UniProtKB/TrEMBL annotation:
Keywords: Kinase, Transferase. Coiled coil: none annotated. One of its GO terms (molecular function) is D-xylulokinase activity. It comes from the Bacteria. Residues 293-490 form the Carbohydrate kinase FGGY C-terminal domain. This is Xylulokinase. It is an enzyme of class 2 (transferase). It comes from Halobacillus seohaensis. Its EC number is 2.7.1.17. The keyword Lyase does not apply.
Length: 554
């Protein structure tokens, strides 16, 4: 037989056998489902017991600024969940010829923090208030002073206490407060549960008990005791679970919500719901001490697993945990990619006005690579991509700005470089506190998010900003939906007492390709020059906030 023909036949047989194998896994329920509610997309990923993605589904959405709060409508939360699941389910039907009825395990992930308050009938008392709201500074500052522990504006307890300070009418009817991940988990399982990582963005966690800090809970209850609310704090918070523990099962009602065609059977076990920070750590295998990851999207955050406690309270540093309860220093900036996306949208309009067509991915690749031709410091240009307030730099609102002097080297390469630099400007300020003031050791940073889809560019920029090696894994594009699917698989498939760290190292990431990039000396020096310009120029951003009135604002 001709060698080439024989080789083709072998490949076809292998492909057919693999198809049959995956089909049988779907039928047997040897799968895990990860559901993540991101800031611009709801994504669902179905993986097999070897952690390979079988199918995924998506639903695009966007937050809205309504009555002074950034929010997502409840109706879209549910319809988006159903649409993303249906998208994934139809791909399974198309590719494997079967309808999903069984799933081995399910996990829910979502944007951390924020405020979802429900009454005893399960009704939302106020629209969902997301992490993006910078409206709780008074509450956050007072609680930070009370606890002697940094309480950022995004945290659920800050939202609750700000509502108390504002004497909002819904407070006496509060039966349960949670995050978006905790809400979806409750909707599908009926359990008021939360993973320790997500819980650590609601209220401080005691590392020794891996539960809410009891002394701080008592302090909060004493703080509001005279208001005579019919609840105590611990009674309205979700129950904390660790990675590997089961946190509920899919109810009949939940199955009908998730799969409104009612093919999916109830009884599927759930792992604890987690925040996007925790699932990002899992997706990049950065849950061991001295490791970290940076997640790039509408917001940007870096998570560094700590070896020791920080010496003092830093308002720029959140102290949260990994999904297994280890302490983490988290630097979170509210603004990252929105302004870059807006500028590239403008360039795409220009293409179209010239009668040309360009794919979005191609446009991003060309423009990002242009930044590699720029002056190390961006040619003296300055930009702030502040679509919303930024807690690290103390600004309660945002005004996207681009500024240059007559002597700036204004060209396309520098323009792109400065917008990539500024996406990490606020993050850099927080990271310098960890590395330069607290002497936190970092062996490696793993990057994930859309920026890293363009090879080299994202890694070079982040390596310059943080002055540490930056790696990207072949799995990094999977993101938090894949990460929470891995946590669901860990709950179901771990060996007795097998740690999450060992499960990831030995089973999930064994053999996964990693591309590592070390900081370039000139890039690091250029970013240091830029960040000083960035700090000095914050008065310009403040003036824009004070004097440039938003449309529709009184």
């Amino acid at each position: 037989m001709n060698y080439k023909i024989e080789n083709v036949i072998r490949k076809e047989i292998k492909l057919k056998n693999n198809l049959v194998n995956i089909k049988q896994k779907i039928i047997n329920g040897e799968t895990s489902l990860g559901i993540e509610f991101g800031s611009t997309r709801i994504k669902i990923v179905l993986i097999d017991n070897c952690f390979a993605t079988i199918a995924s589904g998506n639903y695009e959405w966007e937050n809205r600024l309504e009555n002074g709060f950034w929010t997502y409508h409840l109706e879209e939360i549910i319809t988006g969940l159903q649409a993303a699941y249906s998208d994934m389910k139809q791909k399974v039907v198309h590719n494997y010829g079967i309808t999903i009825q069984k799933i081995g395990s399910i996990g829910i992930s979502a944007m951390m923090h924020g405020y979802m308050a429900l009454d005893n009938k399960g009704e939302l008392l106020v629209p969902f208030r997301t992490w993006r709201n910078a409206t709780t500074s008074a509450a956050a500052n007072k609680l930070t002073d009370l606890f002697r522990f940094n309480i950022p504006e995004r945290w659920s307890i800050a939202h609750l206490y700000q509502a108390i300070l504002a004497k909002e009418n819904h407070l006496p009817r509060v039966d349960f407060i949670t995050t978006l991940a905790g809400f979806i988990h409750w909707l599908l399982s009926g359990n008021k549960a939360i993973g320790v990582g997500d819980a650590s963005g609601m209220f401080p966690i005691d590392e020794s008990t891996q539960d809410y800090n009891e002394s701080m809970v008592k302090q909060f209850d004493e703080l509001i005791a005279t208001l005579d609310y019919p609840w105590k704090l611990k009674g309205i918070l979700p129950t904390v679970f660790l990675a590997g523990e089961q946190a509920g099962e899919l109810t009949e009602a939940g199955a009908k919500i998730l799969d409104n065609s009612e093919d999916l059977q109830p009884g599927i076990p759930f792992c604890p719901p987690e925040g996007d920070a925790g699932t990002g750590m899992v997706a990049t295998n950065s849950v061991r001490k001295r490791t970290g990851n940076v997640s790039v999207g509408t917001s940007v955050f870096a998570m560094i697993v700590l070896e020791k406690e920080l010496s003092i309270v830093h308002p720029e540093i959140d102290l949260v945990t990994t999904p297994s309860g280890s302490p983490v220093g988290m630097v979170h900036a509210n603004n990252c990619s929105s302004d870059i996306n807006a500028w590239l949208g403008l360039f795409q309009e220009f293409y179209e006005a010239m009668g040309q067509n360009v794919e979005t991915d191609e446009l991003f690749t060309v423009m990002f690579n242009k930044a590699l031709e720029a002056d190390p410091d961006g040619g003296g240009l300055l930009s702030y991509g502040y679509f919303s307030g930024e807690n690290i730099t103390g600004l309660e609102e945002g005004r996207p700005l681009f500024v240059r002097s007559p002597k700036s080297n204004f060209n396309l390469a520098n323009f792109m470089r400065i917008h990539l630099f500024t996406a990490f400007g606020a993050l850099k300020i927080g990271m310098d506190i960890l590395t330069k003031e607290e002497n936190v050791a970092i062996d490696n940073i793993l990057g994930h998010g859309g920026l890293f889809k363009t090879p080299v560019v994202g890694q070079k920029i982040v390596a310059a900003a943080m002055n540490v090696p930056v790696s990207v894994m072949a799995t990094a594009g999977e993101g938090g939906a894949w990460g929470i699917a891995i946590l669901a698989s860990y709950m179901r498939n771990k060996n007795h007492k097998e740690s999450l760290e060992d499960f990831l190292d030995k089973k999930v990431f064994s053999g996964v390709k990693v591309q590592e990039m070390y900081p370039d000396r000139l890039d690091v020096k250029g970013f240091e020059t830029f960040i000083e310009r960035y700090k000095e120029g914050l008065v310009i951003e403040r003036a824009a906030i004070d004097n440039l009135v938003e449309n529709g604002r009184d």
